[in-house]
C-alpha cells in the first residue's frame, strides 16, 4: 500500500486564492490539538473551520470526490462519514508557525474515528519558506508536494509534521474521513 496519495492540480490557483480570501475574512482561533489542549510548543497556527464560512460548499463537494477516488484506488478503508468540518490553518513565520510530529487519531469522539487525512496546499510555494508537510509512513520521511492546489492523502494514524515556516505564510486545508475502528 502506497501510504501517501497525491493529486496535483486538484484545485486551480484561482480557486486556492478564492479559498484563502474567504477564510481571511472571518475571525480565526488559535490551533487546538485533538485533545483540545493548547500547547504552542506542539502547534502554532491560526484555524478557521470551513463550515463556518459561507460560499465554500463547492470545496467540500470536490474534496469528497477526491477522497472517494483515493480510497477506491489506494486505501480501501471502511469510510462512513466526514464527521468534522474541514479546517484551514495559517502558519506564519512571524508566529513560528509549525506543527510537530503527531498522528491525527485522538481520544475525542470524532478524533478516534479519523481514518484518512487530506491536506490541500493553498499557498503558492514561492510565497513562503519552510512549512513543508512531512509524512513518515515507515522509516523514511516523505515530503508532500508543495504545489498550490495539490492534495495529499494519508492514513490518519501515520506520523506527520509541518516544519517551521521561516518566511511568509503557509495556508493549508485539512479534512478527515471517518469510519469504524480498524480490525
Ligand atoms: O497543515 C498541514 O499540512 C497539516 C495539518 C495537520 O497535520 C492537522 O491539521 O492535523
Ligand atoms: Fe495532522
UniProtKB/TrEMBL annotation:
Residues 82-179 form the Fe2OG dioxygenase domain. One of its GO terms (molecular function) is oxidoreductase activity, acting on paired donors, with incorporation or reduction of molecular oxygen. Keywords: Dioxygenase, Iron, Metal-binding, Oxidoreductase, Vitamin C. The keyword Metal-binding applies. It comes from Parasedimentitalea huanghaiensis. The lineage of its organism: Bacteria, Pseudomonadati, Pseudomonadota, Alphaproteobacteria, Rhodobacterales. Pfam families: 2OG-FeII_Oxy_3 (PF13640). This is 2OG-Fe(II) oxygenase. Its cofactor is L-ascorbate.
Amino acid at each position: 500500500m502506497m501510504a501517501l496519495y497525491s493529486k496535483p492540480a486538484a484545485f486551480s490557483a484561482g480557486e486556492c486564492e478564492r479559498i484563502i480570501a474567504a477564510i481571511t475574512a472571518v475571525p480565526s482561533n488559535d490551533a487546538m490539538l485533538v485533545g483540545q489542549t493548547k500547547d504552542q510548543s506542539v502547534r502554532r497556527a491560526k484555524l478557521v473551520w470551513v463550515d463556518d464560512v459561507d460560499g465554500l460548499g463547492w470545496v467540500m463537494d470536490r474534496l469528497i470526490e477526491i477522497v472517494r477516488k483515493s480510497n477506491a484506488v489506494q486505501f480501501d478503508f471502511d469510510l462512513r462519514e466526514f464527521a468534522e468540518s474541514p479546517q484551514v490553518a495559517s502558519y506564519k513565520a512571524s508566529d513560528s508557525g509549525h506543527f510537530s510530529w503527531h498522528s491525527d487519531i485522538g481520544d475525542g469522539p470524532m478524533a478516534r474515528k479519523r481514518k484518512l487525512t487530506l491536506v490541500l496546499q493553498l499557498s503558492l510555494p514561492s510565497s513562503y519558506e519552510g512549512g513543508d508537510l512531512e509524512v513518515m509512513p515507515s522509516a523514511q520521511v516523505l515530503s508532500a508536494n508543495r504545489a498550490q492546489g495539490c492534495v495529499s492523502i494519508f492514513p490518519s494514524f501515520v506520523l506527520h509534521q509541518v516544519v517551521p515556516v521561516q518566511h511568509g505564510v503557509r495556508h493549508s486545508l485539512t479534512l478527515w474521513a471517518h469510519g469504524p475502528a480498524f480490525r
